[in-house]
Amino acid sequence: MSVKKIEPSIEYTEVAQSAEFKQLMAKKKSFIIPLSLFFFIFYFTLPVMTAYSKVLNTPAIGAINWAWLYAFGQFIMTWTLITIYTKKAETFDQIVDQILRKTVGKG
């Protein structure tokens, strides 16, 4: 005997065309694009600087040069971006919940 799960009806086209959904997508885009650009620029600066410049090869602290400090900074940057994204995703999830409450069962 199988149990058939009853799921609420959602009109996806209506949701995608709603002002709330468009506002959510605009907020996500305005958050994700600048953060992604920052990440890629910060990430690719290390290999470019080490390949085409001697700036990061100079000693910073004893035998540790700036390239090692920059590489360590990438770990810190990644964890910081993860934390920021996680916090921001909570607000996106709340908006999604509001949209779902408004549209579930209408179709």
From TrEMBL:
The record's annotation in InterPro entries points to: DUF485
**Which Pfam families would you find in this protein's record?**
DUF485
Sorted keywords for this record are: Membrane, Transmembrane, Transmembrane helix
Species of origin = Tepidibacillus fermentans
Report the transmembrane regions from the record. 31-52, 64-85
Q: What is this protein called?
A: Uncharacterized membrane protein (DUF485 family)
Q: Does the keyword Transmembrane apply?
A: yes
